[in-house]
Amino acid sequence: MAIERLETKQRMSRIVKHNGVIYLCGQVCADASQGITEQTQTMLDKVDALLIQAGSDREHILSATIYIKDMQDFAQMNEVWDNWVPEGFAPARACVTANMAREALLVEISIVAAEI
Fold first, then answer.
1. Cα separation of 28 and 43, whole Å?
2. In this structure, what are the phi and psi dihedrals at residue 104, rounded to the nearest 5 degrees?
3. From CA 89, how far away is CA 56, in angstroms rounded?
């Protein structure tokens, strides 16, 4: 089966589809001057838009890897996450502390989902 790449640039594709599985590149917030709550929400808003573009939605997320700059923000990030994930559809998930590409970034997420 063919591999489909959407919004491909030299370094990465925003979406890659293969065998009914969707891979999203890492997503960060819309405004890095905001706090962890706002950064998490706008990051997840971007995930929603990409999932729709790719032919999926929150209920079809298979796994999520969350990179957080400081584990002191873990509870606040999880509060936004818990409100975003539909009840009964929690994906496999990992959350790790990571150095970010830009100093102001507090959180990043990588998503794998199934096509609808």
1. 5
2. -75, -15
3. 13
Report the distance separating Cα 56 and Cα 20, nearest Å: 10
Q: Give buried/exposed letters for 30-50 (b at 16+ CB in 10 A, else e).
A: eeeeeebebbbbbbbebbeeb
pLDDT digits (tens, 9 = 90+) for 7-34: 999 999 999 999 999 999 999 999 999 9
Residue range 69-81: mean pLDDT, rounded: 98
With residue 5 as reference, give the H or E element that holds it.
strand 4-8
How many Cβ atoms from other residues are within 10 Å of residue 70's Cβ?
11
Alpha-carbon torsion, ordered 102, 6, 9, 69, to 10 deg: 10
- For the question of whether the overall pTM of this predicted structure is more than 0.85, the answer is yes
SS3 16: strand
Q: How far is residue 58 CA from its own chain's centroid?
A: 10
Alpha helices (runs of H) in the chain, residue ranges in sequence order: 36-54, 74-84
For residue 1, name the pLDDT band (cuts at 50, 70, 90).
Answer: confident
d(CA 60, CA 50): 13
